[in-house]
């Protein structure tokens, strides 16, 4: 697969080897540690706010006037959907780039730090109006609800910070490619490139949206085109969802096989999955708008097709993962049709957490297909079902993978080791989280089918019988939420223990090798520019028809509304 | 190799099915930017069959790929005109010509010519189509009148933006291939 490294890269070879033997350089480690610390502080705070919401929705807790449900909801969304995910993804992939590309370039490290502070600054700017109850617009923030302009300016800085990190990653990868002619980008960096390509291209639409909202929020223009804003938002929103998913998938393909003592799935197929996800992702945004008015039926039909197409690489992933498990377990002496599962390391949290995360993606993905289907979506669209769905996908498939990663990544960057005690804590945490999320997400799905709406605080609707019938399910929601909060506390404890208090030692960055007899990966997989062009063409196919319609046949625009 | 020819032929048959053809032709942009390229793609897949069947013809008449690409360009330009699209919907003979010309006079020559072309000609072709698409985009978006009897002005504008966005993608590709020196990485 790889040709011999040319002599000109001697120093680099030395650096690569030093990196592998001595572990991550202190400066790169500090960067990742900072990103991960912010991510886990965000989950602590965001989890607490989530608990408050859950208790309120169950009618068990009256929130004070100075911190109402919608403020909590907005902050919960922003903390977990934007801060946790972005900081974790960047921290993890920068450690991956550092490990697989022989250290970060000083320039790139600087860019990542600038990005870090830009995001923090942007986040502080966004939080101030939320705390002042001037931005209770939820994390989706689309018009006609209007927040204080400061909120949107904060978002601009967050996006700019993300772009900084994306370009840093591109520079590092490009420089490595120049130094290593004829070689394939190491698989983890290949995933990182895909994620940063998606982060950059996916956030262009939301940047355009925010730039049209700011003058409107200031009152410089009177009205805004709501449908265009929503469409631009979801082009980003859906991509963001898939960015975390792709981050989790990278660990499933690259890390988990190593942890179970096996080899990873076919390199070419892995890269095809990544390329397919990059090309097809952005257009998936439309299935979030499946019941929006103003989009004609044929266009919606086309988008259902485009959304379901994303399911294909996911099915490939499901197959690949279980194939790797079976192959590895059989090599270790596993027998029987399914009896081989006993040979997997169930007592290792670094495997258990991502495994449950993967298993959760089976119902989560099925729920996603339900929501992409026009008629079914009409039944569940504005109900708690959808909230249950994204807690299953993000709260389980993605976040549990992130937790699983933290048990080796944090010891790796802090040059400590995972102790049996923390591993045990992690196992218990994983079980609590699993039970909590099944109860909470299950209750949300069910009560959604019974009609309980999302995005509202607790109400009995004047003691309407139907609304009262939701109460038992909402209790389950609160119970699940409480278990999850316990899980959050354990996880955050584990993270900071591993970062500052665990015994010193060397932890390996577990990157699995390919099978020995594997055919070489073809060179065309490296043509990133071509994949980006394909992506642009597909985005054009998806968005030209509806956007032209929204703009040319635009209704009178909407003035800003403050509904809270 | 035969497999790709068969799939190309099956694609052509599928596109010829009346419900499929009606659906794709009912929207202007899917008519021009989906049905027509798919017809070309079906020809592209079938090129192998003709190359194996008539090797002398292709080596005599399309030695360096330029005649083939010229034929391809002429056919593509012809089908970019508003009037031809209108006629395809009105006159059965023109509709039949569309289903013959795009696969066999555009797709097959493209399949035969592309590997024979030098990088100069390949880029020249992309530049030519970028300019053509920008011009057509301009025509369809800013035309003061309805250009097709069969399609509304809004559809015409949509198609115009379809041309512009495709041209944009080609510009990105051209910039990418201009700045990237692949030999550095191999």
Automatic annotation (TrEMBL), chain A:
Source organism superkingdom: Bacteria
Domain Cytochrome oxidase subunit I profile span(s) in chain numbering: 35-496
Biological process per Gene Ontology, one example term: aerobic respiration
GO molecular function: cytochrome-c oxidase activity; heme binding
Keyword Cell inner membrane found: no
Transmembrane segments: 35-55, 75-95, 116-132, 152-175, 187-220, 232-256, 268-290, 302-325, 351-370, 390-410, 431-453, 473-496, 528-552
Assigned keywords, A-Z: Electron transport, Membrane, Respiratory chain, Transmembrane, Transmembrane helix, Transport
Cytoplasm keyword on record: no
GO cellular component: membrane
InterPro entries hit by this protein: Cyt_c_oxase-like_su1_dom (IPR023616), Cyt_c_oxase-like_su1_sf (IPR036927), Cyt_C_Oxase_1 (IPR000883)
Name of the protein this chain belongs to: Cytochrome C
Record organism: Sporosarcina globispora (Bacillus globisporus)
TrEMBL record, chain B:
Domain of life: Bacteria
TM stretches of this protein: 33-52, 64-82, 88-108, 120-141, 161-179
Transmembrane keyword on record: yes
Keyword tags: Membrane, Transmembrane, Transmembrane helix
Name of this protein: Uncharacterized protein
Record lineage: Bacteria, Bacillati, Bacillota, Bacilli, Bacillales
């Amino acid at each position: 697969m790889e040709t011999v490294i040319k002599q000109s890269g001697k120093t680099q070879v030395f650096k690569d080897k030093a990196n592998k033997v001595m572990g991550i350089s202190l400066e790169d480690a500090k960067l990742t540690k900072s990103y991960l610390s912010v991510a886990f502080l965000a989950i602590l705070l965001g989890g607490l706010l989530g608990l408050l919401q859950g208790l309120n929705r169950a009618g068990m807790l009256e929130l004070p006037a100075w911190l109402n449900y919608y403020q909590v909801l907005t902050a919960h969304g922003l903390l977990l959907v934007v801060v946790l995910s972005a900081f974790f993804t960047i921290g993890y992939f920068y450690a991956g780039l550092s490990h697989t590309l022989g250290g970060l370039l000083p320039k790139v490290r600087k860019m990542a730090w600038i990005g870090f502070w830009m995001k923090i600054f942007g986040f502080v700017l966004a939080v101030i109006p939320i705390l002042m109850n001037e931005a209770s617009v939820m994390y989706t923030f689309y018009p006609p609800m209007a927040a204080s302009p400061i909120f949107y300016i904060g978002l601009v800085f967050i996006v700019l910070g993300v772009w900084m990190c994306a370009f840093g990653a591109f520079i590092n990868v490009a420089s490595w490619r120049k130094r290593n002619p004829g070689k394939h980008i190491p698989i983890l960096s290949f995933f990182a490139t895909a994620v940063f390509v998606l982060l950059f291209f996916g956030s262009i639409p939301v940047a355009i949206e925010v730039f049209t909202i700011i003058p409107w929020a200031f009152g410089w223009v009177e009205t805004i085109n709501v449908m265009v804003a929503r469409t631009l938002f979801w082009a980003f929103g859906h991509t963001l969802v898939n960015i975390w998913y792709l981050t989790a998938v990278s660990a499933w393909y690259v890390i988990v096989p190593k942890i179970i003592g096996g080899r990873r799935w076919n390199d070419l197929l892995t890269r095809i999955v990544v390329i397919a996800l990059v090309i097809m992702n952005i257009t998936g945004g439309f299935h979030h708008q499946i019941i929006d008015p103003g989009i004609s039926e044929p266009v919606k039909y086309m988008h259902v097709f485009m959304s379901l197409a994303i399911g294909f690489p996911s099915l490939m992933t499901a197959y690949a993962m279980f194939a790797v498990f079976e192959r590895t377990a059989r090599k270790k002496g596993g027998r029987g049709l399914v009896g081989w599962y006993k040979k997997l390391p169930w007592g290792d949290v670094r495997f258990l957490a991502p495994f449950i995360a993967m298993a959760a993606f089976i119902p989560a993905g099925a729920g996603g297909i339900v929501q992409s289907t026009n008629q079914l979506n009409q039944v569940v669209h504005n109900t708690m079902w959808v909230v249950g769905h994204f807690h299953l996908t993000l709260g389980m498939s993605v976040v549990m993978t992130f937790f699983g990663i933290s048990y080796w990544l944090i010891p790796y960057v802090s040059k400590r080791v995972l102790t049996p005690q923390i591993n045990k804590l992690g196992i218990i945490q994983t079980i609590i989280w699993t039970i909590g999320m099944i109860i909470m997400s299950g209750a949300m799905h069910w009560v959604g089918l019974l009609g309980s709406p999302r995005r509202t605080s607790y109400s009995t609707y004047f003691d309407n019988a139907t609304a009262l019938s939701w109460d038992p399910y909402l209790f389950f929601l609160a119970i699940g939420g409480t278990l999850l909060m316990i899980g959050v506390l354990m996880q955050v404890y584990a993270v900071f223990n591993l970062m500052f208090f665990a015994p010193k030692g060397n932890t390996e960055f577990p990157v699995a090798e390919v099978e020995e007899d594997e055919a070489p990966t073809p060179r065309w997989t490296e043509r990133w520019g071509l994949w980006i062009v394909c992506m642009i063409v597909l985005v054009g196919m998806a968005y030209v028809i509806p956007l032209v319609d929204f703009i040319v046949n635009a209704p009178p625009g909407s003035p800003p509304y403050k509904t809270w | 190799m035969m497999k790709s020819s068969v799939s190309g032929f099956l694609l052509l048959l599928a596109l010829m099915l009346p419900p499929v053809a009606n659906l794709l032709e009912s929207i202007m942009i899917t008519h021009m930017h989906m049905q027509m390229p798919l017809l070309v793609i079906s020809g592209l897949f079938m090129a192998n069959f003709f190359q194996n069947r008539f090797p002398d013809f292709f080596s005599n008449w399309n030695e360096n790929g330029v005649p083939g690409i010229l034929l391809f360009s002429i056919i593509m330009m012809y089908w970019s005109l508003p009037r031809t699209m209108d006629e395809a919907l009105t006159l059965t003979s023109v509709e039949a010509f569309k289903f013959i010309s795009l696969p066999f006079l555009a797709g097959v020559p493209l399949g035969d010519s592309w590997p024979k072309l030098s990088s100069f000609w390949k880029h020249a072709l992309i530049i030519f189509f970028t300019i053509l698409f920008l011009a057509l985009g301009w025509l369809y978006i800013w035309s003061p009148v309805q250009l097709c009897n069969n399609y509304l002005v809004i559809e015409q504008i949509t198609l115009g933006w379809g041309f512009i966005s495709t041209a944009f993608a080609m510009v990105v590709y051209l910039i990418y291939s201009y700045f990237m020196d692949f030999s550095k990485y191999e």
